[in-house]
From TrEMBL:
It is an enzyme of class 2 (transferase). One of its GO terms (molecular function) is ATP binding. It holds the Pfam family HATPase_c. Its EC number is 2.7.13.3. Residues 478-505 are annotated as: Disordered. Keywords: ATP-binding, Kinase, Nucleotide-binding, Transferase, Two-component regulatory system. This is histidine kinase. SMART domains: cNMP, HATPase_c. SUPFAM superfamilies: ATPase domain of HSP90 chaperone/DNA topoisomerase II/histidine kinase, cAMP-binding domain-like. It catalyses: ATP + protein L-histidine = ADP + protein N-phospho-L-histidine. Residues 495-505 have a biased composition (Basic and acidic residues). It comes from Streptomyces cathayae.
Length: 505
């Protein structure tokens, strides 16, 4: 949109803080090669258009906004003379994409000093060559540093997750190895016992009864109920007395196994009636091997199932075998992240899940959302660890104003009010030296806001810190590509979205 040209006064231009140190000759050149224009209320330029001009406010009111999903979100409103916007990076040339990074409109008749982008770039390089070199170094250096440190942050997170996953895998794997070794020993003893039974002069009908009892005992093991410690101890004493009374010498060793398998005195009475007193001790020993074998196989099954679950969680977390953009269940992503981080969760930290399972699956980049969950959960655990390693982490999902809310609430000491607005700033961290780079929340903000067109905010008081992520439920296609959508309401804007300065509108 073009405004109405008005006379350009070097004196007026020189009164702005941006140009107050320029010479009369330089101010004259600005007026010759630039222009002043008056705009009626309405748009001046739109985000994403080629950045053709550099605008400096002379009088009036400007409003800058950013596109978030399908909505324009106001980020700056100012009436201060000298604030500027537009082609501010023209001096970088083709090394960066020269488009407007926001939209600008005016709410009343407003005048600007307008400088074409090419002229602005030439003047910057000619008048301020050293400043241009410094600005170029700052821009590209910060960009490169942020990328390198961001990669380092990801590697550190990956190392931590790998260590935790290795620890979690080691426990069930070691249990399976121990159970397998014991099972091999028990099977060998069972073969030996079978050989003794085969050589004995036991009647055939008693052997048939013994095999039938063995089968029913195995079935009973699979249905054994869990007993309270006191109840289990009482039952062990009762079984030990019964076994000793019936001539079974290993009663104290056998009784705990039988109790774990759900066998009781009534069951042993049935065994005694079926096989007779003569072979009862041998039959009990044979059944003991059967019970131990079944329990060991259950332990191996539980251990391998746990290993399989961990591997599935790792695959779900990494999303290596899935498309980058897909419709995903947020609860599956949260569960896989919590499982991956379980090695970092202290014994005195309680995890509470308040999931609304009626929420729909949403269009998202699951692997990147998992990184957001990792950063937010890790920060919460670190905060509670600093408070003595005791606390509660609550993960809640809900529907909020037409979007999916994911909230992480911890009972740590909280974020001091004076730095609350800075937590999403790059390189800002409250963690001890060596424990954080200050990019975790910045990366999370970029993933949620820039990539998913959602919102992320934080509220904190001592004992109650809440990070809230809002994600759109549906996808929009502004350019033919499926992308998430969002509304403009939700959590507060991040500090980067709210930031204004004296010199930049």
């Amino acid at each position: 949109m073009s405004g109405r040209p008005t006379p350009c006064s070097p004196k007026e231009i020189g009164s702005l803080f941006l140009f107050e140190k320029l010479s009369d000759e330089q101010l004259g050149r600005l007026c010759r090669e630039g222009r002043t224009e008056r705009f009626d209320p309405g748009p001046v330029y739109t985000e994403g258009e080629p950045a053709a001009c550099f605008y400096v406010l002379l009088e009036g009111t400007v409003v800058l906004s950013r596109r978030v999903g399908g909505d324009d979100v106001e980020v700056v409103r100012s009436s201060q003379r000298g604030v500027y916007s537009g082609a501010m990076q023209a001096y970088l040339g083709d090394r960066v994409r020269q488009v407007y990074n926001n939209s600008m409109r005016v709410t009343e008749p407003t005048r600007f000093f307008v400088l074409p982008a090419g002229t602005f770039a030439d003047i910057m390089r000619e008048w301020f060559p050293m400043a241009v070199h410094l600005l170029e170094g700052l821009f590209f250096g910060t960009k490169s540093t942020q990328a390198a440190v961001g990669q380092r942050e990801r590697l550190l997170a990956l190392g931590s997750l790998s260590a935790g996953l290795t620890h979690e895998l080691n426990n069930p794997a070691a249990a399976a190895v121990r159970a397998t070794a014991t099972l091999r020993e028990r099977v060998a003893r069972m073969r030996h016992k079978l050989a003794l039974i085969a050589e004995s002069p036991f009647p055939k009908d008693q052997l048939v009864n013994l095999i039938d009892i063995q089968q029913r005992t195995a079935e009973r093991v699979a249905k054994a109920p869990a007993l309270a410690p006191l109840e289990a101890s009482d039952r062990e004493d009762t079984l030990t007395d019964w076994l000793e009374d019936h001539g079974v010498e290993q009663g104290p060793q056998i009784a705990p196994t039988f109790v774990q398998a759900g066998l009781d005195v009534d069951w042993l009475e049935q065994v005694a009636a079926a096989v007779g007193q003569e072979i009862l001790p041998g039959a009990v020993g044979w059944l003991n091997y059967t019970v131990e074998t079944e329990l060991l196989m259950d332990e191996i099954a539980d251990s391998t199932t746990r290993v399989s679950a961990l591997v599935d969680a790792a695959k779900q977390y990494s999303q290596l075998d899935r498309a980058p953009y897909q419709v995903a269940d947020v609860h599956e992503l949260l569960d896989s992240t919590l499982l991956m981080l379980s090695g970092k969760i202290g014994p005195r930290i309680r995890i509470v899940k308040e999931y609304d399972r009626t929420l729909p699956r949403i269009p998202a980049y699951p692997a990147e959302l998992n990184q957001v969950w990792t950063n937010l959960i890790d920060n919460a655990l670190c905060a509670m660890d600093g408070a003595g390693g005791d606390g509660t982490l609550t993960v809640r999902t809900a529907l909020h104003d037409g979007r999916l809310l994911v909230e992480f609430r911890d009972t740590g000491p909280g974020v001091p009010p004076e730095i609350l607005d800075r937590v999403f700033d790059p390189f800002f961290t409250t963690k001890p030296v060596g424990r954080g780079t200050g990019l975790g929340l910045d990366i999370s903000r970029r993933i949620v806001v820039d990539k998913h067109h959602g919102g992320i905010g934080v509220e904190s008081v001592p004992g109650d810190t809440r990070f809230r992520v809002l994600l759109p439920l549906t996808a929009v296609e502004p350019d033919g590509t499926a992308l998430p959508s969002a509304s403009s309401d939700g959590p507060p804007l991040t500090s980067e979205d709210r930031t204004t300065s004296q010199e930049q509108a």
